Amino acid sequence: MKVVIIIPTYNEKGNIDRIVPTLEEEIFPQIKNHEMAILVADDRSPDGTADQVKKLMEKWKNIDLISGEKQGLGAAYMRAMAYAIDRMGAEVMFEMDADLSHDPHKVPDFLQKIDEGADFVIGTRYSEGGSIPENWGLIRKIYSIFGNILIRIILMRFSIHDWTGGYRAIKKEVFLNESKKIKEVRNYTFQISFLHHAVQDGFKVAEVPINFTDRTMGRSKLAAKSYIIGVLKYCFIARFKELAFGPFGKFLVVGGTGFVIQFVIYNLFIKYASLPLAFGSWVAAQPAIFSNFNLNNLWTFKEDKSKGFLSYITKIVIFFFTSNIGVLFIQSGIIYILEYLFGRKYANFYFIFATAVLLVWNFTMYRFVIWRKKTS
Ligand code: GDD
Ligand code: MN
């Protein structure tokens, strides 16, 4: 495959002069099964990085250079990846810092994962065999380690150990699929956004442990405070969207409809009949169950929708049966006990409380029994 190592630079004259020869002389000769090239994405560095690159291009013919307006690291990568695909025929693209914090000797490990079928390989500092610099201060270490743990918790994706890192190998298909969805290009937050979109869309992620070392030349361009804010903002919003527009959000809408149906009938029951409240809530539940099943089937879990009349009947019967277990033993059960203890006066409060308990039971049932994902 054609592999392009993208190196973004802003004032990295000294570093680019070290990393390019290392790649060309030490790393590329080791790689036999891929065609290797380098693309430097410089943003008109005032220190003359571009001129340095042009000198290197005279010596090695597999180097390209693009220059652009400085609009942030994400923007530089987006531009460079599009160029690598369109103009260099890249099938795999690396993200690699110019400052040698990302050990070029790991490139073969990343390619190995690609060869094994991964779409998106990330260098990770926080899993077995990876590390952050010894000489970082305690505060910086804490930020770095807990930051990544916090991200994993907010996003509820635990199998990925390093969301923020910038040493990666990415297949062309991933970029083509995700580039339009990545909004956070101004800063370093795009790293999380890019990876998160790829994960959401089911691309195969693999990890390579890396030992991140501090740069010895030049200075970091990361603005810590705005970076932390940007990361947290992205994570919370992305997670909220996933919940609200995913199955859980729809489940709440459907459940809300069912709740209204049952609540209205239950209240008619209280008004016009003097049978036990628990019985009234059970009767009122039946039309609500019918409505819930059909809405969920057509909307919430439509990918796993029952196909054909027989499958529909089977599912609705199972649905009525499992729902009624909850409705009888949890909802009516709680209402029965409460009426027995406190009388009919707080009938609506009993109903709301009992329904809240039922909610938890129902979602579990829907997801894991009726519309469970087929594992194949
Ligand atoms: N073209 C371009 N434009 N390059 C940039 C820009 C920009 O606006 N900003 C930074 N770079 C380049 C730098 O010249 C360097 O080669 C690379 O991007 C990384 O920048 P550093 O300033 O060295 O970043 P860092 O070491 O603080 O951050 C590292 O860790 C972050 C957090 O884990 C990087 O690996 C980031 O990618 C990573 O997100
Ligand atoms: Mn750096």
General description of the model:
This protein folds into two domains: 2-244, Alpha-Beta Complex (Spore Coat Polysaccharide Biosynthesis Protein SpsA, Chain A); 247-370, no CATH class. The longest helix has 34 residues, at 309-342. The protein is elongated, with a radius of gyration of 28 Å. The two termini are 30 Å apart. It has a seven-stranded mixed sheet, sandwiched between helices. The chain has helices at 13-27, 49-59, 73-88, 107-115, 138-155, 172-178, 190-200, 224-245, 247-272, 277-300, 309-342, 347-370, and strands at 2-9, 35-42, 63-67, 92-95, 120-124, 168-171, 205-209. The mean pLDDT is 91. Helices cover 58% and strands 10% of the residues. The protein has twelve helices and seven strands. With 376 residues, the chain is of the alpha/beta class. The structure holds guanosine-5'-diphosphate-alpha-D-mannose (GDD) and manganese (II) ion (MN). Guanosine-5'-diphosphate-alpha-D-mannose binds at residues 8-10, 12, 41-43, 70, 72-73, 76, 97-99, 101, 164-166, 188, 191, 215, 220-222. The site of guanosine-5'-diphosphate-alpha-D-mannose has 24 residues, from strand 1, strand 2 and helix 3.
In short:
Helices cover 58% and strands 10% of the residues.
SSE ordering: EHEHEHEHEHEHHEHHHHH
Task: Please state the overall shape, judged from the principal axes of the Cα atoms.
Answer: elongated
Oligomeric status: single chain
Bound compounds, each kind once, are: guanosine-5'-diphosphate-alpha-D-mannose, manganese (II) ion
CATH topology of the largest domain: Spore Coat Polysaccharide Biosynthesis Protein SpsA, Chain A
The tally of strands reads 7
